[in-house]
Design a protein that fits this description.
There is one protein chain. With 453 residues, this protein is an all-alpha fold. It has a domain of 182 residues: Orthogonal Bundle (Cytochrome Bc1 Complex, Chain D, domain 2), CATH 1.10.760.10. Helices cover 25% and strands 3% of the residues. It has 13 helices and six strands. β3 and β4 form a beta hairpin. The N terminus is likely disordered.
Amino acid sequence: MVATMTLTWLLAACGGEDTENDAAPAGDKLSAMAYVGRQIFADTALSASGQQSCATCHVPSRAYAADDGLAVPLGGPRMDLPGLRNAPSLAYAQFTPPFRFDPDGTPVGGFHRDGRSLSLADQAEKPFLTPFEMANASADDVLSRLLTRPYLGEFMAVFGPDAIRDGTTALRHIGQALAQYEVEDPSFHSFSSKFDAYLGGRATLDARELNGLALFNNPDKGNCLACHVSTPDGNTPALFTDFTYDNVGLPRNWRIAANVDGNTLDYVPRNGAPLGEPWHDYFDLGLCGPLRTDLATQTELCGAFKVPTLRNIALTAPYFHNGVFDTLEESVAWYVTRDTLPARWYVKADGTPDIPYNDLPVMYDASVNVAEVPYIPAMAPTLTNSEIADVVRFLCTLTDGFDPANPAAYPMPPQCASTEASVAATLAGPARHVAHQVSIHGASTQRDGNDGK
């Protein structure tokens, strides 16, 4: 318990009876709770380092994903501890349903990449106590820091004086405020992409973007819609995810320090020994652990991670839960050639060829999705290089911020100028997820592009 303070002292420290501090500024469209959440979201003083906030890893200009170019973010008391998973975008997260199993056994929903949090508020609490993120030793430490913040009076006005009676209570309300901010602030869910304008008759897609859309939806070509649903759900525009889970057999990303055998990071679970070949110290198995613990015995779920939204995907590199690919070209090309060009994708830490699906114990290979287009091992690639480029161009139309009155100002990243030639160069190039600049004792220095997320 934090040292007892009287309510009178606290009110004096927060400006006494100045009620203007108890609500959002006039004209602000956020509720008082969401306004508190906005301040917490950007407040580095609530971390052990004094340098990390939610906004450090979830940057508004990157659709609330990271902008540090790393496969996993850095955090901890000195901001030098690498995380375990790529920081996901928070845009459109509010539409995620709570975790459940459908009647046919399909896992759906939940927050984090393994669905272990049931709500947006619960997810928002986790980084405060994660040792390689905001790294507070306890909820009481979070409260001690909160008591020094200039918005404490507003926090208490929203949640009441009992909100600071102990750290656990305060942290729960912090999560609620952050969740309310994400729900209310339109920047988290603006539905303002070129694709949205196209559907509304306020923009046109060019020939390559239209072809990319057709390929995306074609079950015999891209078949992306099998998981990334491109149609509305009632009154909600398409979210480009069905919130299910899939094991797609991703390559191991050696730029993550936790993936390098022999690392000395004390927060990395050493779960690899009993799992057999390929004999790594640590495996991230998604739904069945090790960050999620309640499904550890359901080994058929091992290696499955939640399907993310593709909205703003052009802004949120690197891609997948392990940040293994730096570009959309790599990501789409890998989907199409996973089993026909395995040597291009599956490499050891030194860049030499490795076994397929090398981020997964061989004993779980049977769980890898090999039954759906485009990754059916016996099938030739279902997209040509030119078609891959067109899918990339369509994906870029899912970027928010399109103004039909000024289309030239649309924030298209350079990778959106994908061509047949650039895809060919990507396929001919070397794997970039090797360990040539990763320290096994601490932070990664490779800047190519987590409560464990």
